[in-house]
Hints:
Elements: H1 14-23, H2 32-37, H3 49-55, H4 67-74, H5 76-99, H6 103-107, H7 110-124
Helix pairs in contact: 4-5
Amino acid sequence: MAEYPPYVNAYNGVPTLFEQIKAAAVPPKFTVDFLSTALDMKSSSYRAMIPLLKKLGFIDPANVPTQAYKDFREDSFALYYSLENSIRRLISERLSEKHGANWWNDKVPEGVRKEVEKKQREEKDTTMSIRSEDPLALH
Length: 139
């Protein structure tokens, strides 16, 4: 059975969570107490943010902040880069679980695949480095 991302009732708090993570010191463990005191996210609805951070790879199974958590805090580029890659990885894992390893070719509409292939070719023709071979990075 596929494992889905955790349900987050207070989804409007997600941007606040990441803003507060950036501003606060890195805790030894990301706990409910840290969430409510250091990040000032006191509602019990925010407790679901902890499983979300685990799914995104920002904290490990023991609630210890990972390198992705620390990278996220470094600067705005690293913040978005780290978050985008975590989300892409999670999406790819869930789609592979649900539709198999060939989900891109089997489930993504041909028009989308062709547009991504076009963007990949255009990147290869520039002097810039290629972002990624992962099609999710270009869509």
